[in-house]
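Predict structure. Chain length: 340.
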Amino acid sequence: MEWSITPIKLELKYTWKLSRNSSDNKINYLIGVKDGLHSAQGEVAPNIRYNETPEVIESAFENFKSKASKVFNQGLGIEAFTNLLNELDLPHALRFGIESAYIHLQCTKNKQNLNQYLQIPTPSKVATCYTLPIMEHQLIAEFYNTYNLDRFQHIKIKVNAETGLEELAALSKVCHKPLMIDANEAWKNPDDLIAFMKQLSPYRIAFVEQPMPSAMEDAYRYLKPKSPYVIMADESCLSEANMNELHDQFAGVNMKLMKSGGYLNGLRIINEAKQLGLKTMVGCMVETTLGMSGAWALCGLTDYADLDGYMIIKDEPFAILSEENGFVEMTSKDIAKSIA
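Prediction complete.
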């Protein structure tokens, strides 16, 4: 097998700002794999929150490539391939890019689509939320109308502890949809957070996502029985997530393939969360429809979907997914062909 990694620079339609950083473009990577007759790709959408810098990604890939070249000639099934990836302890996003490329290659060789390979139901049209980045509250109404966001069933809004209430008040003047509040670990004190949430009664709140740092596990245990809203895990839900521990802290989980490290572990997280009665969501990073098509394939299993990450890219290069009236569907019914 031949493996390759190629950086792609993605210019964004507007500044993507959350509580800890902002950006106008994103560097992702394409992972390519060939076996002589077939080829496939996966995507890596690094997150600086987890120190997934270009240097870290590229160095880890070269380590994978050198190790893989010594064993692939022996032939690998998915179990042996998974064991190899586990041994290398790769960055989450890179592990997903590599595992997804390998699985996409198997789909192509076996003439299967991804859902058939994973043995999960294939969604048709998936209702996605759309996320507003942090911005001056005076700009929210114009932004909402410019991008015609009323077509989405749910609106997610990034907030911080300082201006969150101003943003919500401004949004409520133009939006009457259920709101998902995404704080990206902005609060450092659970009682301050509870005081904030007590002021949300005028709004239709679906959930509050990762309002405090993931390391504040005791604070989340304190918060859970006191919160008037579902608290959804995001930064706390990584590849090694222990769902019993998350159940003690949260009422739901946002599973992102770029954080779970692959389809197989992502499915584990979703299934274990559902067994424990947690709300479930498939989320995304800023990524193209190559990576997002994999997230879309899992949406038949969850309560919510957040597939808007490709919609903020100026010139999205793959067009594997399309959105109409807030619903996302495949442009090709054969995901294996779309991602080859």
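Summary: The chain has two domains: 2-118, 126-339.
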